[in-house]
Design brief:
α2 packs antiparallel against α3, α9 runs antiparallel to α10 and α10 packs across α11. 50% of the residues lie in helices and 17% in strands. The radius of gyration is 20 Å and the shape is elongated. The chain has a 7-stranded mixed β-sheet with strand order 1-4-5-6-7-2-3. The longest helix has 25 residues.
Length: 287
């Protein structure tokens, strides 16, 4: 029944998004799961949630394997598609769980192979037990436990979630410093080990390697802010995966999203997505 599927849709979208890092791909995966659900003898399914989770996870593993080569040959740093909403808006039901997946965590998950990623997400983020995960990935519970340990070793702290209350004051000060060319203030806002990633893909000019260190990052940001202002670009505060971010617009269209990873009022990471393929969903839907 449609009603049963809709009950599980938020969790299914979040799992798919966590697996592939793409909102549009996640929607495609869940749509395919719906087709399979609609064509299945549902009377034979005792636990719809478990069945649908298995279908979505396995579809995501297949999608991730097919995307692996494309990411290995990607031009410049690869970043996930940001999930963007207005600061003062309440997240829709389908967004709540997905927003627990920060851009920082999603980028870190790229270190894992598809099965490791599935086990890690289901265990650490969505609180499945090992017996449930074993059925999904077709391995024993003990093997899943070992995979989870190995994945945590690669990923590190799995709790890198956006804070419950985004620090919009830091974003505001960061924005003003960029717009006014105040490199000193930017340096003060950035953590000593801050890193900036810029994802333009093959279509837009961006930094081809991560920029490390407050002074280098500040100089880079002031430079692009100056060029953007000369072109008539504007920026406004939004939330990207629950974290403070700037939505950059040029001539009425979305040009980029710059998300800040803020820890103890210091900017630890800056993730700038300007690849137009990764921004096409913004304004179209919320997952």
């Amino acid at each position: 029944m449609t009603e049963i599927f809709e009950v599980h849709r938020p969790r299914l979208l979040a799992i798919a998004y966590g697996m592939v890092g793409s909102i549009m791909d996640a929607e495609d995966i869940v749509q395919e799961a719906w087709f399979r659900w609609n064509g299945t003898d549902r009377a034979a399914i005792r636990e719809p949630g478990a069945y649908l989770t298995t279908v979505v996870t396995r579809l995501a593993i297949d999608r991730l394997r097919s995307a692996r080569y494309r990411r290995e040959t990607y031009v410049g740093p690869w970043l996930p598609e940001p999930l963007v909403r207005e600061v003062d808006s309440d997240p829709a039901d389908v967004v709540v769980e997905a927003e627990s997946l920060s851009l920082a965590l999603l980028a870190t998950l790229e270190r894992l192979n598809p099965v490791e990623r599935a086990v890690f997400l289901l265990r650490e983020i969505f609180d499945f037990d090992y017996a449930e995960i074993a059925d999904v990935v077709e391995k024993s519970p003990s093997a899943c436990r070992q995979i989870a340990v190995r994945a945590r070793d690669h990923v590190g702290d799995p709790t890198r979630k956006p804070p419950a209350t985004p620090d919009m004051d830091v974003l505001s000060a960061f924005t003003v410093a960029m717009a006014t060319g105040d490199i000193g203030s930017l340096v003060e806002l950035l953590a000593a080990d801050a890193i900036l990633w810029s994802d333009g893909g093959a279509e837009r000019r961006a930094a081809r390697h991560p920029i490390i260190g407050p002074r280098k990052i500040a100089a880079f940001l002031v430079g692009i802010a100056r060029r953007g202002l000369d072109m008539g670009a504007t920026g406004r505060p939004v939330l990207a995966n629950g974290a403070p971010a700037l939505l950059l617009e040029l001539e009425g269209t979305v040009y980029g999203v710059m998300a800040l990873e803020i820890v103890d009022s210091a900017v630890l990471g800056v993730r700038s997505v300007i690849n137009p393929d990764k921004l096409a969903h913004i304004g179209r839907s919320a997952l």
